[in-house]
Amino acid sequence: MNETTNVIEMRHIVKDFNGFKANDDINLTLKQGEILALLGENGAGKSTLMSILSGLMMPTAGEIKVRGQEVAVKNPTVAKDLGIGMVHQHFMLMDSFTVLENIILGHEPSHGPKLDFTKAKQEIEALSDCYNLNVDPLKKVSEITVAQQQRVEILKILYRGADIMIFDEPTAVLTPQEITEFIQILKELAAEGKSIILITHKLEEIKRTADEVTVIRAGQSVGTFKVKEVSDNRLAELMVGRHVNMQLDKPSTELGQTMLKVDKLKVKNRQAVWALKGLSFDLRGGEILGVAGIDGNGQDELVRALTGLQHVDSGHVIIADQDMTNQNVRKITSSGVAHIPADRQKYGLILPFSVAANLSLQTYYQAPFSKYNVMHHEVINKFADDLIDQYDIRTKGSAEPVGDLSGGNQQKVIIARELSRDSNLIIAFQPTRGLDVGAIEYIHQQLLLERAKGKAILLVSYELDEIMQLSDRIIVLHDGTISGEVKPEETSDEELGLLMTGFKKEGTTLA
Ligand SMILES: Nc1ncnc2c1ncn2[C@@H]1O[C@H](COP(=O)(O)OP(=O)(O)OP(=O)(O)O)[C@@H](O)[C@H]1O
Ligand SMILES: [Mg+2]
User: Which residues form the ABC transporter domain (predicted)?
Assistant: First the structure.
């Protein structure tokens, strides 16, 4: 095959869900050995299109050619036989199995009637070495990090012979350092002749990684562009259909009273190891305090301890002058704490419930949603319709199960619910994970509006850009302690990077 061979051609793809066209005449071409980015706003139809290519669903209309041959990708086995493998956004690994067992599951090599583990282990090690994946086949999946789990997913499709590889938002769960390593892996795979489709909302990643980018909007093709020839602004405009302001305007605000005081907080994690080792800081109304740090340095435990999801071993959490240490979730939320959790499907939503039910999940038992213990569905539905409008949640209606929404639109449901609630303190953990640039702009503006209203906002994020743009002050978490406190206008990515790896800032006054 020469360099310009098309390995995939998708033509006029249509996918109709009961009259709603998630894909409405989309074209996509993938060339041998290239990295093609697939870009589109939340709900544009990217995951749907890739599910069709990997045999998870059949298109309503359209044609797919693989290496020039027209094919019907009826199921994932057909896709596998065609050399197509997909790494899904939510990993599909068994926690209690080893890496090796996960990789060979369903494709076990045998030696007579017996499983040939030795052969499998050798093959996996060879693949892991070849692409620098650094995975130990004998570790249990529950013992390895998210980034390593992702490498297991990559090994899984390599082991099954994939040379056309699809990644659906692979970097949403990775830290900046892990993203750099992941991009390196993608480039090595492409250099070896693999052809890759990469879904990401991060324009900067597309710039670093892809040769071409195919843009879709509202289920339709917008076009395919050479990455070198198109600017970030133009890409943002193409995908959302309007100008996106990537620079935020952050007016100064007056600081109010202390809304959150964390005092010598000590918390053990699930493995009974100290995750927070005596953390102290405070946060006032009208202020955004950014918490920066590499994933796994106590962020999870901090947010869980503040919201009542985790037992505090010692120290105090004072919210608006009330001691809320080890109080239950309902008491904390109803006292005026909004919480945008990092894992939207686990803690933020009830997937089979409707959009309306999810939007009133924290308030359905209060007036005006309920009276004398009877729920008022008209009020709940009207409230939902207003939020759907205001936050541009792409849904077929407030009665649709929230699980049918695209990933980014599920996130918008949580944000709409939490920001529309009466609160003094907003705890936002990775609030824009998986959102497109247009939605990020909107959410950032909303957070600034809440700040202008005098609310206190704790922003925990792995996105340094987000922390730098929004925060008034930044604390850096390292190994359960604060390695430094800085102001965004007085620091740099380099200084933050050093603090994140544990270099203490001189003159730090915090415990
Ligand atoms: N199984 C389904 N039933 C009904 N509607 C669906 C189903 N799957 C997806 N949709 C709808 O199709 C549209 C496209 O969804 P898709 O998941 O492809 O978007 P996406 O581009 O991947 O968005 P995101 O960036 O938010 O992940 C959405 O409006 C979604 O609600
Ligand atoms: Mg998607």
Answer: 8-243, 260-504
